[in-house]
Amino acid sequence: MLSLRPMLMLLAMATPAVAQDMASGAAISAAISGNTVQGSMSASGAYTEFYADDGTIKGKDYAGNWSIDGNKMCFAYGTDPTTCWAVQISNDQVTWVGDGGPEGTGTILAGNPNSF
Prior knowledge:
- The protein has two helices and eight strands.
- It has helices at 5-14, 25-32; strands at 35-41, 45-51, 56-58, 63-69, 72-76, 83-90, 93-98, 101-109.
């Protein structure tokens, strides 16, 4: 009879540890506030946004607001509903994680290099 233990250990190693390496709300704010993130979202494509300390978002031709809700970063643009993502941060790299897993990535750039 085969033991299930080796199979369970293999399954555990193959399962991504997404929830374990999510940033806290404080860590998200510390990394993002006053900086720019440039990257791409699976649903909307490329983006470059400056996240001002006052909670405003400034892009090339648009603006919005950002906030922290628990351990998620939330975004509001115009009349669109607010959306929130968990965030993985590794050095200057961010991954935006939704309920179904990673939905986008970006690189944190110091300050507002695009003068948005």
